From TrEMBL:
Membrane topology qualifier: Multi-pass membrane protein
Record protein name field: NADH-quinone oxidoreductase subunit N
Sequence ranges assigned to domain NADH:quinone oxidoreductase/Mrp antiporter transmembrane in this UniProt record: 150-446
Gene Ontology biological-process annotations: ATP synthesis coupled electron transport
Oligomeric and partner information: NDH-1 is composed of 14 different subunits. Subunits NuoA, H, J, K, L, M, N constitute the membrane sector of the complex.
Record's function text: NDH-1 shuttles electrons from NADH, via FMN and iron-sulfur (Fe-S) centers, to quinones in the respiratory chain. The immediate electron acceptor for the enzyme in this species is believed to be a menaquinone. Couples the redox reaction to proton translocation (for every two electrons transferred, four hydrogen ions are translocated across the cytoplasmic membrane), and thus conserves the redox energy in a proton gradient.
Transmembrane listed as a keyword: yes
HAMAP family: NDH1_NuoN_1 (MF_00445)
Organism: Blastococcus xanthinilyticus
Molecular functions per Gene Ontology: NADH dehydrogenase (quinone) (non-electrogenic) activity; NADH dehydrogenase (ubiquinone) activity; quinone binding
Reaction(s) catalysed by this chain's protein: a quinone + NADH + 5 H(+)(in) = a quinol + NAD(+) + 4 H(+)(out)
Amino acid sequence: MIDAPDFSFAALSPLLLVLGAACIGVLVEAFAPRDVRHPVQVGLALTGTVGAFVATLLLAGTREVTAGGALAVDGPTLFLQATIAGLGALSILLFAERSLDPARSAFVVSAAVPAGSPRDRELVTTQRVQTEVYPLALFAIGGMLLFVAANDLLVMFVALEVLSLPLYLISGMARRRRLLSQEAAVKYFLLGAFASAFFLYGLALVYGATGSVRLRDIREAVTAESGGVLMVLGLGLLVVGLLFKASVAPFHSWTPDVYQGAPTPVTAFMAACTKVAAFGAILRLLYVAFGAAEWTWRPLIYAAAIISMIVGAVLGLTQTDLKRMLAYSSVAHAGFLLTGVIGFGAGGDGSGLAATMFYLVTYGLTTLGAFAVLTLVRDGDGEAGHLSQWAGLGARSPLTAAVMSLFLLALAGIPLTAGFTGKFAVFRAAIEQGAWPLAVVALLASAVAAFFYLRVIVLMYFSDPVADGPTVGVPGLPTTIVLAVTATATLALGILPGAVLDLAGRAAIFVG
């Protein structure tokens, strides 16, 4: 007889709120009149994400393993779930923006209409929108919340698919440049399928080596046997699958194409939330299951961090499209985050874990704000993404240029911004664990990456405006809220980061 596992519905309330809102959103799509779907879906999505954020705050201090040991609700889980829910709510606001151009939305009216057809050209100017993006985004957020709580490799794989499949769909729903958007979605799907296969094969090898897929049982087997060939190979394949989702070089090839082709609100959503979820899974896998066998994963993470920082910084210099530049910025920042992962070290005190979680908060807020600004600068074919189109923006729209400069300086790690505090925390954690060569490489990569951020600022303030240059739209209420929150947080976490750093430090304890 099989006993039903015990569920703590209170501990799982953030996940249940988001997935419940997603299921209701599917029913709204099926039964609600078209004219009322958009406000209902926006309200439902915000209710689910904000409700999940509040639920994580109410659960603070909870340390519990539930669902038969498959899910762990502890400090890192709740901290990362709060981060994902908060960034998800801000992303939903970007999805809801409909006041920047005659098309009224970044999303296609009907994804089933062939790109370039007469019907497609006719629908470009309509105010209708494909509202399925909201339940799809909620399912992706639900998968992310499950991903960071997974205490079982099979649950982790299911969460990986739940968060990935909706992203493949909404990446191809851009209203303009639809062929580029659909190409990006296909690339993302095909490469994501390979990454999932790597993860699943690694899961099978780890199960063969340890006899279990539970992280606690794997840890006990690793501690008792000190590893084996199957276990090491399986861990390598698991990490490859997760590094793909985190856009870590050399598994980053999808990132620039998908960032450029997807609707900009979706790009912001992926850049902020998916990064948090992927690193949450990496941290739990390495620290909980393989913390006693650090020798198996430390060289791999060390090499991936160096490659990612170098590739992101160097290739970012060559980009002329802002979305592709921010994509390579994401690759470089993934390397900086891995520096914090290395900072946990053998017998570490959790400082590397706390620093990495804090960095995820700062990076998510800053990146989301940068993409929100990008939606405001527009030409006749949507967002003005080419660097030359941003020349003289400081004279044309001083406030927009100032806000973008703040986010770029934060991404560069300039003092008094959140980016500096985050980098300082992960670099210090790495140095404390003896990984000072990695910290030196990270500092050099930061200096190189700062060049392409500062290049945009120089273009905005020290170049003459283009005569027929792009227009700067007046943001609606949703985008205004996003910009206000992200800009304020970027400054606050750079000047007074103590409260959030202390919160991350207190949360940096896993329960197996």
